[in-house]
């Protein structure tokens, strides 16, 4: 089979292609939209697939439909197995805390979101699996004029009683303080949005978004202050933009594991006392940069590009 070369006609002086333009290769992008890490991973890879024809719905996964040329599946193992059974090449990406990485479906190309700076120890990866490095957003700059606060809350996999108690207690007090200190507050949650809205009801100026319906990376670019659950997508977002980050207290075993690992490498404050001034003061040019503690030479920000490249190769010349 001839390998297609999408750059063949990009060289100076190369002849223009004759005949009709080739059909754009179709790729299906699947994530667990109730988990913010999975959702952010899918979106960050998708930003580097502009030359392909992506679909974000599950329609192309159904029986009787024309299968896509390749698929990216973030975490959803049943979807990966269904696609593989139909002969679709699959890149299976484990998006969240690397300690959760398990054996991928047979036949999938396996990638794990694992920044090199994040301390282990980690379970051994299956044969052929590779860590991605940081899945950074495509846009690394922040708005010059920033206002308000962004609170990114993940309760994926968190016991309901623990999540609800946090929402009606500390989260509400933080939202009240965010309004007072920064003039506005966007709260983004991945699951239990109705419960979060009820817990924050009556606070004028607080906007509650479901992560699947909000552009988290864009909201961060325009926010003055960023508070987030200790989840990998939020931490790498702040790292990539060298932006201040205040961690919300970890909820559930997985968040506690990641928060402990991060604390060994990066000195990030934790929002346990809402009135504390240090939580609401954006870092100025003379303040210490917590991300300076990382050895940037050992870990770049091109994880999303690498995953996109692998997906592109499968779509153009399936294995």
Report on this structure.
With 319 residues, the protein is an alpha/beta fold. The chain has two domains: 26-135 and 301-316, Rossmann fold (3-Layer(aba) Sandwich); 149-298, Glycogen Phosphorylase B (Rossmann fold, 3-Layer(aba) Sandwich), CATH 3.40.50.2000. Helices cover 29% and strands 14% of the residues. The chain is built from eight helices and eleven strands. It has helices spanning 36-46, 77-85, 160-182, 193-199, 216-222, 232-240, 252-263, 303-316; strands at 26-31, 53-55, 70-74, 90-94, 109-112, 130-131, 149-153, 185-189, 206-210, 225-228, 246-247. The strands form two sheets. It has a six-stranded parallel sheet with strand order 2-1-3-4-5-6, with helices on both faces. The radius of gyration is 21 Å and the shape is globular. It comes from Streptomyces formicae. Residues 1-22 are annotated as: Disordered. This is CGA synthase-related protein.
